[in-house]
Structures are given as structure tokens and as C-alpha cells.
Amino acid sequence: MDNSFGGSENEGALAAIYDQIVCCRLCPRLVEHREQITRTKRRAYLDWDYWGKAVPSFGTSKARLLVVGLAPGAHGANRTGRIFTGDSSGDLLYSTLYRQGFSNQPHSRDKNDGLELYDTYITAALHCVPPQNKPHREEILTCQPFLAGELEILDRIGVIVALGGIAWKAALDSWVAIGGRVPSPRPKFGHGHESELGEKTLLIGSYHPSRQNTQTGRLTTEMFESVFSRARQVIGNR
Hints:
Oligomer: single chain
Helix content: 25-40%
Number of strands: 6
Distance between the termini: 31 Å
Largest sheet: 6 strands, mixed
Radius of gyration: 16 Å
CATH architecture: 3-Layer(aba) Sandwich
Mean pLDDT: 95
CATH topology: Uracil-DNA Glycosylase, subunit E
Structural class: alpha/beta
CATH class: Alpha Beta
Number of domains: 1
Shape: globular
Order of helices and strands: HHEEHHEHEHEEHH
């Protein structure tokens, strides 16, 4: 299993969710799309044996930082089988985590590259790649129990970083699903926006580290770094 659950009492419960995600075929449109990508591949990766299944979460059961993304990349995680691995979004995320002391190396190339996360767990609103990166609402709802289950198990989370508006909403919806309270009116997504969830968890928003955002300048490396620097500060104080 490609996870560093760390032997805590929550390890078995997270492992069960991991297996449920990998076996999931509940959304026919997404299953067809991810398997079509696996068959056709990208020219640069013709020698790869694509993962082509739902991509599980990755991290430690003792995490105090939870990172919520949108969905696997078509030729990134859908190819490698590890979340945020094998594309430019993952390159920025993992290098940032490394600089903030949340991992042992600044890159994530494949499931066997020796990467370990410290104090961190990475998940997503959706565990299958959607066509044009646009999931249907019912597909997000189908995936929500995975995130809600992880939130229940990861009982040390002090900061949730939501990468994009869909991840922000999924985090809030999942928080409510497990009985948590959110401020009223419900907080709106924005880069650097913060919202306290209960007494011990802070939700922070960040633009997604996609090429669409980084190449247009909407998200700079410094902007992204500031979010995780803030997360590190909050975790240290708590």
C-alpha cells in the first residue's frame, strides 16, 4: 500500500478507505474516461503501465495538515497511482511541502520513489479524473463519503488547505457531514481566505496549482508558499 499511515490506531480504518477508493466504480462516466486514457496514453508515456483506477489518498494517520485537491490528473496521478504525482501541479505542491518541512524530498515521480510525508495527509474531492477537469455534482457527492470518513479518522487535523473552490466546498460539506459546524454565512473561497472550523481546525483556501493558474500568473510560487507557511505557523502554535 502506497501510504505511510505510521502504525497509529487509525491505520486500519484509513487502509479500509484506501481499498474502497481503489475498487470504486460507482460513477460510469468517470470509469469510462479514466480507462480510455489508460488505453490511449500520452506519447511521452507510452512505456508506462497506467494506473487507470480511482486514485487513493496519501499520507500519515497522525497528520495535522490535510490537503484537499480537486481530482487526479489525466496523465499524472491517473498514470502513476499516487495523488498529485507525475504532473506540474504535483511538482509545485510537493516542492512546497518539502520546503515547509512536510516531506523528506521535493519531488514525487512514482509510487516507489521513497517519498514520505510528515504530519500531512493528501486527499481530493474526487478520486477519478473527470473529463475536462469538470466533475458533475452527483459525482462529487458520490465521492464525499471518502473525504468525510477521512476527516473522522484523522483526529489531529489542525489545518485543512483546500486547493480550489471545489475542494473548499467539499471540505466544508464533509465537515458538516460528520457533525462539524461551519460559520454562518458559509465562508466563501478565495486565495488565502481562512475560516475556523470548530475550536481546533483552520480551513485555508488556495488557488489550485494547475498550469492554468501558474502560467497565467494567477498563482505564483510565492503565493502558494505563503499558504503552507501559514499552515506551518498555525500547526506550530496549536
